């Protein structure tokens, strides 16, 4: 494995990868971020977008960031993302604290935020 390679949210030394504006294409939230990886023709991605936006609007300092999977293949590969929608919950430092695949339930997103804030 090459130096600096990232695998499933960890670097080659096993340390947790931190994602910031450079990787995500948007400013992360002050307290936490809900990062959604989507693709253009993904029906569940639309509903996931709505759910995550609603939760982010309810909690001060939480951002919802949507990343186009097709335009960010290097990041997708580095994080081991295989399906859309995939949602990562990041803490204030940009570390992945929860990961989910498929359309989440609103209550589950709120509960996952508890691990980040």
Explain the overall architecture.
The chain is an alpha+beta fold and 117 residues long. It has helices at residues 21-24, 43-58, 73-79, 106-113; strands spanning 6-7, 10-11, 32-38, 62-68, 86-91, 96-101. The strands form 2 sheets. A 4-stranded mixed β-sheet has the order 4-3-5-6, with helices on one face. It has a two-stranded antiparallel sheet with strand order 1-2. The radius of gyration is 13 Å and the shape is globular. The N and C termini lie far apart (33 Å). The model is unreliable at 1-8 and 10-14 (pLDDT under 50).
- Could you report the average pLDDT, rounded to the nearest whole number? 88
The number of distinct β-strands equals: 6
Task: Count every helix, treating DSSP H or I runs of 4 or more residues as helices.
Answer: 4
Shape: globular
Helix content: 25-40%
List the uncertain runs: 1-8, 10-14
Strand order of the largest sheet: 4-3-5-6
Q: For the record, give the distance between the C-alpha atoms at the N and C termini, rounded to a whole number.
A: 33 Å
Category by helix and strand content? alpha+beta
Element-by-element helix/strand order: EEHEHEHEEH
Report strand %: 25-35%
Q: What summary fits the major beta sheet?
A: 4 strands, mixed
| Cα-based radius of gyration, to the nearest Å | 13 Å
